[in-house]
Design a protein that fits this description.
By secondary structure, the protein is an all-alpha fold. It has 2 helices and no strands.
Length: about 120
């Protein structure tokens, strides 16, 4: 073998070795990018699921808040009525067996003829 032929063979081997490394690098980059893309897609899917759950919880809390606001406004009105001078008899009637002094109590008696 001549020196020229040996030199060409070495160049060809170096050439193939260089392309092998480039091929390995490209394949590695593609695999890493694919892995990162998969992770990103899974993260987006999880984020959408979490968002949907949080929106459902928010709707439930808003409904409870609305009910609580209505109850609080009713209780605040009743509380205000408890201290209003013109509502004294109404509060007294509502919270006890007492009635207004101007009203007469009606007591039903059984007929004496039936006894």
């Amino acid at each position: 073998m001549s020196k020229k032929h040996i030199h060409q063979e070495q160049d060809t081997n170096n050439y193939h070795l260089e392309y092998r490394w480039m091929t390995i690098e490209v394949i590695t980059k593609l695999m890493m990018n694919g892995l990162l893309s998969t992770i990103a897609i899974l993260s987006i899917v999880r984020s959408f699921n979490y968002l949907r759950v949080q929106q459902t919880n928010l709707r439930e809390l808003q409904a409870e808040l609305q009910e609580t606001r209505q109850r609080v406004s009713k209780l605040a009105k009743e509380f205000g009525d408890s201290f209003a001078p013109n509502m004294t008899y109404r509060v007294m009637y509502k919270q006890s067996h007492f009635t207004e002094p101007k009203r007469r109590k009606i007591i039903y008696l059984q007929d004496k003829k039936n006894n």
